[in-house]
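Researcher: Please translate sequence to structure tokens.
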Amino acid sequence: MKKEETAIFAGGCFWCMVKPFDTFPGIISVRSGYTGGHTVNPTYEEVKDHTTGHTEAVKITFDPKVVSYEELVEIYWRQTDPTDAMGQFQDRGDNYRPVIFVKDEYQREIAQKSKEKLEQSGLFDEPIVTKIEDVQPFYEAEEYHQDFYKKNPERFEQEEASGRNQFKDKYWK
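Model: Translation complete:
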């Protein structure tokens, strides 16, 4: 088994996607960035202006001996509204769409089975619309976006409280 693996998830603002993974055992790093678009090295302003096709995402480097990809997918579902294809909570637009980016058939199979399990759970009244797509180039976001929850704890708490936490409390007890 490899020492390190990677996973890429998009689920709204990357600021809110870092902490749940970063604080989990076996995580080596979580980097905010952009993926799924058609330009090279997009900036935050370009992505925000919907000119690049990218979505905000996190790239997670993890130790598969400590945490499995399956566990990461389960953490992912608990951070997103899988029934909302055009954003997450207060974050609206294609740059906030929910996507699990898979790098190989192993990840695709795990993500697909997990999605099917969620669809069959009856937890949600609406269809599960989160996409599972092939990994595309991942461009790290500017440094001021990295570790946002550590650098700006008060603003991070405001972001978390603006709908994401209420949703999680309703569906993920």
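Researcher: Any highlights?
Model: Helices lie at 14-22, 44-48, 69-77, 105-120, 148-151, 153-161, 164-171.
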